[in-house]
Amino acid sequence: MSVSEGSVRGMLAVNLRQARLGRGLSISELSRRSKIGKATLSQLESGAGNPTIETVFSLSRVLEVPISDLLDARPAGELTVVRAAETEALSGEGVDLRPLQRIESGEAVIEVFDQRVRAGRRQDSLGHVGTEHTIVQAGRLGVRVEGREVELGPGDYVRFDAARPHSYTALDGDVRSVLLLQYRSDQRLHLPHPAPGPRSAR
Known about the structure:
The chain has 202 residues and is of the alpha+beta class. The protein is built from 5 helices and 10 strands; from the N terminus they run αααααββββββββββ.
């Protein structure tokens, strides 16, 4: 999934509205469930908002859809190159995520992200759809899942149910890692993708 500058907001605007309407939710009800303000949701649906990791993961959790169903993805060709300078990162309290690719194989859907946990920071998540896999490339990463804590170094790997509350902490400088989010294909909403047009809040 190659994301160019400015496309995250545009893709999220279209896909968020489709997912919300597909679940039969008003903006008010989505706001109540996600704890995201109605004004913020309206901005996101109009393409004017500035989505953060916390916002996108909260919407994924409440709408029960994979992250890529909100951010969209392009099918891979024979050769896919994603340049670091050409991808827009989603940033949160402690993490920068760059969406790279979505892989579909049989009943499995896997999203690939380049992940940077900033030095001395922690990123908390209340949980979201899927199974989370992280492979540390550089640095020391603290991972907490429902009260259990582990420390990972370069080359180490962790897997857990992403629906459980979890957090990542950079223990010693920045941490670079590859994040894989795995879903079953039946966890996707499979909504049609009409051409972007005028959108009204409900």
